[in-house]
Amino acid sequence: MTAKRTYHGATFQLLGAEPEKTRAAESVIEKVETHLGLKLPESIRDWYSRHGAIEVLTTHSNGDPLVPIEKFSIIERQSRRLIPFREENQGVCNWAIALDDSEDPPIYVEVDSGGKDWQLLAPTFSDYVFSCVWDYRMIFFKPALVQAQNQPLTESAVKALRRDFRPRVMTQGWPGSTQFRFQSDSGAILIWASENQADWFVASPDPASLESILRNIWEIDHVGDWLYETSQMGKIILDKLKRE
Fold first, then answer.
1. CA 82, CA 15: separation in Å to the nearest integer?
2. Spatial distance between the Cα atoms of 6 and 225, rounded to a whole number of angstroms
3. CA gap 85, 68 in Å, rounded
4. Contacts of 190 (CB under 8 A, 6+ apart)
5. Average pLDDT over the chain, rounded to an integer
6. How far apart (Å, rounded) are the C-alpha atoms in residues 99 and 211?
7. CA distance linking residue 28 with residue 110, whole number of Å
8. Per-residue DSSP letters for 84-110?
9. According to the model, what pLDDT value does residue 136 have?
């Protein structure tokens, strides 16, 4: 007998726990499917059937609210059937699940288009969920954090980062044009790359690890010249490196 696929195993590993499925949540999903006239993709069912799934995505975001699953509806845009499931907290963009007959469907985003222009953000829903949790667990929740608004990301920079770090899920569409994620034993790097600039976020669990990762990337696209502290630990390490 073939084992049932676990779509969100990498996310559960980041969370340090696997939320339990509840019969109450499964019942809600079944009612939604009856209303929509279709069975939701398996990765969507897997996530929304778990206790606290909505709270996980809310916590690992900039306060971007999710559409209650009971209010899911299908829209048709650009020859695609979409289920909008999230909106940005200032109304800048909206996210939607694309119904493409796959069990782990792609996620699309529209930015300031009034819901008309949707572009691919993540190849699968599970990648999207992972990216949300990773950004906060590996970057924004870490005590040692620095940032930079730097020149546009160069191809040589991407090659150097891929050589020295483990690439993680890459997404597109917003914020910036492409979101790069890299990880090592010392910490993690998130880059929002666009045509005009690259926003860097570099984070570690402690000052020594942050110093190690910053020494490694300092000359990449000259990002070291533009780094600034967003934490007390970050300030201590940047002051030290800039004195050298």
1. 28
2. 43
3. 8
4. 135, 138, 139, 179, 180, 181, 200, 201, 203
5. 95
6. 45
7. 27
8. EEEE-TTSSEEEEEE-SS-SS--EEEE
9. 98
Non-local (6+) Cβ contacts of 66 within 8 A are 54, 57, 58, 85, 86
Q: Read off the pTM.
A: 0.95
Across the strands, what pairs with 75? 82
Spatial distance between the Cα atoms of 232 and 228, rounded to a whole number of angstroms: 11
- Maximal C-alpha separation, the chain: 65
Between CA 7 and CA 64 the distance in angstroms is 23
Place of tokens 């910053």: 214
Beta strands in 61-196 (DSSP E): 75-77, 80-87, 93-98, 107-111, 118-122, 144-150, 166-167, 171-172, 178-183, 188-193
Residues across the chain: 244
pLDDT tens digits, 138-154: 999 999 999 999 999 99
What is the rounded CA–CA span in Å between residue 199 and residue 81? Answer: 33
Distance of CA 116 to the CA centre of its chain: 23
